[in-house]
Amino acid sequence: MNRYETIYVCSPVLPADDVSAIADKVKSIITQAEGQIIAFDNWGKRKFAYPVSGQREGVYVFIDFTAPSDLVSKIENFYRMNEGIFRFLTVRKETAVRKTGKPKNKKGAEKADSPGDPEQQMPAVKPNEGQQ
Question: In degrees rounded to 5, what are phi and psi of residue 106?
């Protein structure tokens, strides 16, 4: 099973009950295919950057879930068939977590974090000392 995120935008003129019914239908599609909903968030009405289908705002709904790969096409077909949905996007999340950190030190090299010899760290003479 893969992990996915989907977001869809509903018409702002839809009653709250209809927006909830769409969300319930999407949830049932996911759970019937043995998927698991990780996060569900109704972001509410937000303004668009430009008019979409004559509307200046829409109701955004976000779902994070795991499911078989063939389920994505079923969900997107539901989005396409529903007249209350303006736009949608579904992406597969990367499962491997990239570790960021310091590179491993080579054999024989000093550690970058160790303070080392104090005499090597401090200059013998200040750079501008003796010059005027």
Answer: -75, 160
How many domains does the chain contain in total? 1
Q: Nearest to residue 10, comparing CAs of 94, 85, 91?
A: 85
Please list the ranges in the chain whose pLDDT falls under 70.
95-132
Q: What is the CA radius of gyration of the chain?
A: 27
Encoded tokens for 73: 């096409």
Max alpha carbon distance in the chain (Å)?
Answer: 82
**Per-residue tokens: 60:** 């955004």
CATH code of residue 59: 3.30.70.60
pTM for the predicted model, two decimal places: 0.68
